[in-house]
Design goal:
- The chain has 92 residues and is mainly alpha-helical.
- Among the domains are: 22-56; 64-92, no CATH class.
- It has five helices and three strands.
- The chain has helices at 25-35, 37-42, 46-51, 60-69, 88-91; strands spanning 70-71, 76-79, 82-84.
- The protein has a three-stranded antiparallel sheet with strand order 1-2-3.
- Strand 2 (76-79) and strand 3 form a beta hairpin.
- The longest helix is centred in the first third of the chain and has 11 residues, at 25-35.
- The radius of gyration is 19 Å and the shape is flat.
């Protein structure tokens, strides 16, 4: 279990999930958003779609620290401040 320090990381943490997109994807998405802004806002999907217009960097050290503090049996983080939960609302 990670929280018991029984897991050993290698020297490099590979985080999978790199993105790729088709040519003209950004232009197409901007066009779709521009033509459907009212509908997307009414459905409360506008912000979600807008999030796809950007790329996001990630720090593998942060991902590693998160994994080391994560307890999968309780779905909580074990930190020096105590046991903590993360909800989707916290990420927003």
């Amino acid at each position: 279990m990670i929280s018991d320090s029984k897991f050993r990381w290698g020297t490099v943490l590979k985080v999978h999930g790199e993105f790729y997109y088709l040519s003209h994807y950004w232009e197409w998405l901007e066009l779709v958003v521009a033509k459907n802004t009212a509908i997307l806002k009414k459905a409360r999907l506008f912000d979600v779609v807008m999030a796809f217009l950007y790329t996001y960097d990630r720090n593998s050290d942060t991902v590693r620290a998160f994994c080391e503090a994560w307890c999968p049996s309780t779905n909580t983080l074990h930190t020096s401040a105590g046991e903590m939960s993360i909800f989707l609302w916290n990420l927003w």
